[in-house]
Amino acid sequence: MEWMISYQNRNVFLYCPLCSAKALKAHKKHAFYCPECGLVFYLNVAAAVVALVVDGQGRLVVTVRGQKPKQGMLDLPGGFVDPGESAEAALRREVREELGVEVGEMTYFGSAPNRYLYKGVHYATEDLAFVCQVPDLSGMQAGDDVRELLLVKPEEIDLNKFAFESVRGFLLKFLEH
Predict the structure, then answer these.
(1) In the structure, what pLDDT confidence band is assigned to residue 12 with cuts at 50, 70 and 90?
(2) Is 15 in a helix, a strand, or coil?
(3) What is the separation, in whole angstroms, between the first and last Cα of the chain?
(4) Number of Cα atoms under 13 Å in the Cβ half of residue 115
(5) Are the CB atoms for 130 and 43 separated by under 8 Å?
(6) What pLDDT was estimated at residue 117?
(7) Which residues are 113's β-sheet partners?
(8) Which domains does the chain show, CATH number per domain?
């Protein structure tokens, strides 16, 4: 594709986002420089959140992805943190949008880097996982970009069916405890 170039085995944009010049040059490890306008464009990671929610019977709430990327594969509730939003607020919003329920207490569980391929562009993300208490799962229903909701016993979890490496890592650590 003419509008993309390969940089350290990643696809990145070729045109300057400030002046539109076709002049971006690799600059440092994760940045580009536009000699036309002087912009240094950094490739910062995007923050994303993941919820580990267990029901009263010890089953994990698992989603089936309703959209690309990885449509039809398993995932955990969550999504991207919006600009100006805390990770905790993003998690509450994403769980509300995807499950239709409210998160009570949450405990930070861990973080992991991830690569999110969308429409030919690899986005670097830092995924933050939280163990969440949801006082009432009775009204839970698939919403937003979720095709289906599942309640899965820990011993029935097949890590290979989950869409993202970071989520598989969180699940492996969660199941070990």
Answers:
(1) low
(2) coil
(3) 46
(4) 8
(5) no
(6) 81
(7) 126
(8) 4-42 (no CATH), 46-176 (3.90.79.10)
- Written as six digits, the tokens of 65 are 């992805």
> What's the Rg (C-alpha) of the chain?
19
The CA distances from residue 159 to 4, 27, 134, 168, in Å, are 33, 38, 23, 6
User: What's the Cα-to-Cα distance from 156 to each of 23, 52, 150, 153, rounded to whole Å?
Assistant: 52, 16, 12, 5
Model confidence over 91-139: pLDDT tens digits?
Answer: 999 999 999 999 999 999 999 999 888 777 778 899 999 999 998 898 9
One-letter amino acid of 143: G
Q: What's the rounded mean pLDDT across residues 12-16? A: 77
Q: Are 129 and 170 in contact (CB under 8 A)?
A: yes
**What is the model's pTM?**
0.84
